[in-house]
């Protein structure tokens, strides 16, 4: 039982330019206990975004489906959730979901962002500075996979779009997408598990 793209609820996004790193850290501490507010920093710009039910629903279902996949495939994974990733004086952000494979690392191997308000290009620039090898951007009902190109000169490196995941090469992205759009989270998990087991 599937639905079309979810009807997104209002989500507020505010950008404030000309912010120093020190000012950002003060503001960040001020918001430390604020639920439903996400802060990010890049090139002197402070971004404040409020989360919505639609956003939280999608990102939580994605996480649940992936964790089911990790269990079925017996993949050693360390969930890092929304742990803040920072490069001092350059960038700070919180992924919607993030994971390290094989061992726990300071920088996740995979970061996932649900984007209901634009900014894909800027997101990838931030993850490039952090050195995150793979980023998934969920927008318009489609998961786009980007991998950091390490075969080019350092100055030319960027995330390149890919049809498959470097860390989860056997994951059926089309099935994952279909299940994320299920009307029922339980139905999504059952459908995903059934499709996965049938493919073995």
Summarize this structure as a short list of keywords or feature phrases.
11 strands, alpha+beta, 32% helix, 5 helices, 200 residues
Walk me through what this model shows.
This protein has 200 residues and is α+β, with helices and mostly antiparallel strands. The chain has a single domain (53-199), classed as tt1808, chain A, CATH 3.90.1570.20. Helices cover 32% and strands 26% of the residues. The strands form two sheets. It has a six-stranded mixed beta sheet with strand order 4-7-8-9-10-11. Strands 1-3-2-6-5 form a five-stranded antiparallel beta sheet, sandwiched between helices. The longest helix is centred in the N-terminal third of the chain and has 21 residues, at 53-73. The two termini are 23 Å apart. Residues 1-8 have low confidence and may be disordered.
CATH topology: tt1808, chain A
N to C succession of SSEs: EHEEHEEEEEHEEEHH
Q: How many strand segments? A: 11
Name of the top-level CATH class: Alpha Beta
Q: What CATH architecture do you see?
A: Alpha-Beta Complex
Largest sheet: 6 strands, mixed
Shape: globular
Protein topology:
Layout: E1 13-16, H1 21-30, E2 37-42, E3 45-50, H2 53-73, E4 77-79, E5 85-87, E6 91-93, E7 97-101, E8 110-114, H3 120-130, E9 134-139, E10 142-148, E11 159-162, H4 173-180, H5 185-199
Parallel strand pairs: 8-9
Antiparallel strand pairs: 1-3, 2-3, 2-6, 4-7, 5-6, 7-8, 9-10, 10-11
Helix pairs in contact: 2-5, 4-5
Q: In short, what is this structure?
A:
The chain is α+β, with helices and mostly antiparallel strands and about 200 residues long.
């Amino acid at each position: 039982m599937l639905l079309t793209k979810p009807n997104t609820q209002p989500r507020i996004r505010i950008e404030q330019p000309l912010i120093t790193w020190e000012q950002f850290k003060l503001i960040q501490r001020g918001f430390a206990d604020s639920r439903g507010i996400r802060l990010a920093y890049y090139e002197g710009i402070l971004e404040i975004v409020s989360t919505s039910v639609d956003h939280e629903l999608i990102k939580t279902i994605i996480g649940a489906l992936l964790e089911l996949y990790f269990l079925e495939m017996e993949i050693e994974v360390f969930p890092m959730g929304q742990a803040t990733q920072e490069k001092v004086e350059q960038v700070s952000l919180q992924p919607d979901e993030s994971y390290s494979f094989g061992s726990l690392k300071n920088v996740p191997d995979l970061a996932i962002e649900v984007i209901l308000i634009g900014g894909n290009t800027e997101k990838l620039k931030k993850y490039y500075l952090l050195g995150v090898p793979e980023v998934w951007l969920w927008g318009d009902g489609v998961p786009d996979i980007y991998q950091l190109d390490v075969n080019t000169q350092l100055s030319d490196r960027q995330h390149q779009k890919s049809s498959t995941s470097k860390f989860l090469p056997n994951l059926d992205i089309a099935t994952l997408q279909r299940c994320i759009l299920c009307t029922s989270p339980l139905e999504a998990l059952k459908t995903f598990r059934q499709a996965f087991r049938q493919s073995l």
